[in-house]
Write a structure and sequence with these properties.
single chain; 8 helices; 15 strands; binds pyridoxal-5'-phosphate; alpha+beta
């Protein structure tokens, strides 16, 4: 059965899906996106993902391409057509098609594209050994809270990580603090067991996995600090990890080549990975 995409009102075979050359997403990166994890055929944390979509659209003054309720139906229909069990749904909304001009067009309709992708299993070696990250200056714009399709600095940062043999880049702000990864949120566990991740602000994307994990750990009575942390603090940490909708919770065991703690995935990190996976299992079973 061919994989389908949803493009502006139609389900089309993925290989034939097209958008117009004057789509403002293509010309100006004038659009936003969401990535929603799918587990056992169910959308996980759909509401917070759609809330974040609403926020991103609102900040850029792009209208919803359809009602939230209709969008939920389309997401489910695409999952059904593509027989997606585990993976992600990618959805992108741009300001639409208009003759190229920087100012907002008066009459464009927002354009909506939705695709699905099967989960790429995390390599057993990454889980067993953790992953290395390299650090780079954070050269992004000052509205990283908007999930904009304008991802060139993130793309360059990821490529630099790949070329350095690392899994991810951790981005460092002008004060020497870690903001986040190129497509993941960054966390450390201090030597005295406190869980630290950057506070929400325009300097980071407020990850849905990050928030889900914060909600989950609240019941475990861990000491959690949402605050800035320096690269030096990260390098001196007992454990480190990253979170995202496709990596879940993944141990980080090297920063710029130096081991974090004993250089092995941390005990708390692995426990939090299990906690998050149970959350997905429960969420999928409850739907
Ligand atoms: C810059 C950035 N930070 C963090 C995340 C993690 O967000 P989420 O947990 O919602 O996938 C992403 C995901 O794409 C991202 O692009």
């Amino acid at each position: 059965m061919p994989r389908h995409a949803y493009v502006n009102g139609r389900y089309v075979p993925h290989g034939e899906a097209q958008v117009h050359i004057e789509d403002r997403g293509y010309q100006f990166a004038d659009g936003v996106y969401e990535v929603v994890p799918v587990f056992a055929g169910r959308l996980i944390d759909e509401e917070p993902h759609l809330d974040r979509l609403a926020y991103s659209l609102g900040e850029l003054r792009i209208a919803w391409p359809m009602s939230r309720a209709a969008l939920k139906l389309v997401l489910r229909e695409l999952i059904r057509r593509n027989s997606l069990a585990n993976g992600i749904v990618y959805l992108q909304v741009t300001r639409g098609v208009a003759p190229r001009d920087h100012r907002f067009p008066e009459h464009s309709r927002p354009a909506l594209v939705i695709t699905t992708r099967r989960a790429r299993p995390i390599s057993p070696a990454h889980l067993a050994n953790g992953v290395p990250v390299v650090t780079l200056p954070d050269i992004r714009w000052r509205r990283c809270d908007i999930k904009s399709v304008s991802l060139l600095p993130n793309v360059l940062a990821k490529q630099q990580a790949v070329e350095a043999g690392a899994y991810e880049s951790w981005l460092i702000d002008a004060e020497g603090c870690v903001t986040e990864g190129s497509s993941t949120n960054a966390w450390i566990v201090t030597k005295d067991g406190r869980l630290v991740t950057r506070d929400r602000s325009a300097a980071i994307l407020s990850g849905i996995t990050r928030q889900a994990l914060l909600d989950l750990v609240e019941v475990e009575q861990l000491i959690v600090e949402e605050r800035r942390f320096t690269l030096a603090e990260a390098k001196a940490a007992a454990e480190a990890f990253l979170t995202s909708s496709s990596s879940f919770v993944l141990p980080v065991t090297r920063i710029d080549g130096a081991p974090v703690g004993d250089g092995k995935p941390g005990r708390l990190t692995l426990k939090l990975r299990d906690t998050y996976i149970s959350h997905m299992n429960h969420a999928a079973a409850a739907l």
